[in-house]
Sequence to fold (147 residues):
Amino acid sequence: MDGESYEGIYDSSPFIAWIHNLSKNQMRYLNSKIDELNLGHEMRFIMMIYDNPNISQDNLVNISGQSKASIAKSLKKLEDQGYIKRDVNPDNRRKYMLNTTQKGDEIVPKIRQISKDWEKKVGITDEDIELRKRIKEIAIKGMELVG
Fold:
């Protein structure tokens, strides 16, 4: 279905519904390109952990907006598949520090390249820097409201 087929259908949709739509469709695209990895939304968690070495599970919950149970399940899957490792935090032995393994480190550039390809195909350009910054600001304020 081309873009014109959708015109008018969702005119009254809230802004956040469009953001959700972008996120879901990007995940579908990523999964279609690297289906053999057997990863879903966990790809995002690998990238968050890669970008934030020694991140705690609680911080991952706050950043992602997912429930503790959902994060725990995803982390278990990623650990079992060899993408991440959990190390006991020496400052708080009841908490873990999350890091990617070599296997996780190797997959992140592939995921990022596929993401960039998707962005290009949907029309997100380098000129959209201000839009990206504004959406990030909104996301951070949203995390602060519930965090």
